[in-house]
Write a structure and sequence with these properties.
The chain is α/β, with parallel strands linked by helices and 251 residues long. It has one domain: L-arginine/glycine Amidinotransferase, Chain A (5-stranded Propeller), CATH 3.75.10. It has six helices and twelve strands. A three-stranded mixed sheet has the order 1-2-3, with helices on one face. Strands 4-5-6 form a three-stranded mixed sheet, sandwiched between helices. β10 and β11 form a beta hairpin.
Amino acid sequence: MCKPTHYTIAYEINPWMSLKRQANHQRALVQWAQLYTLLTKRLRVRVKLVGAQRGVPDLVFTANAGLVADRLFIRSNFRHPQRQREEPIVERYFRRRGIKIAHLPARYNFEGEGDALWMNGTLLFGFRFRSDAPAHEALAHLLKARVLPVELADKRFYHLDTCFAPLDDRTALWFPKAFDRYGRKVIDGLVADLISVSEADAKRFVCNAITIGRSIVLQEGFSTALKPNSSVAPWTIPPLTPPPASHIVKP
């Protein structure tokens, strides 16, 4: 994780960013601290911190920095110049910790775990808006694993992790309309138990979730369709004080 010390809306590179609608910096700091506390104190996760730096406000979105597989770090090749400034920072971070660094060919854009998510031993790879389709072959070669490319079809969901969230080896949340027809077919064949979310939930980035064992951290404000005792997802929600996010635990 990276503390949002220097986080701001400094440019516009996706449909959600607007220079006219700035982030509330103090609120971002509070929310980040609540999430960090939830992960480290409640869920007992070991979290490593990347130091915040001026001029790279999106460094806080550390999943985009690359893909980690055991002791290998495949560094991202960011599409936008504004985010390319992050590349040497994260590479230096991993190199200092003795992690092997790998690069994809420079001609391919690749945005790390934002577009590459493991599902039951297969790497699902989202492409079009931020990552390039041919990069999946280079990833398969490096990882010696099956990589399935799926095309993203809605620019609002420009990264795979905004519209698809693996929960376990059989289950995933997804927003089907974020993918083209072939991509939906690939995912349907890969995932045994798909839980579709509504457009309203997708726009709240419910699929941009964190799975820790049998616990899932979701955005607050999701619909009743994903709440306990529903036919879609029979989960229970333990109380949190204060609630940094909705913490859902599958029985």
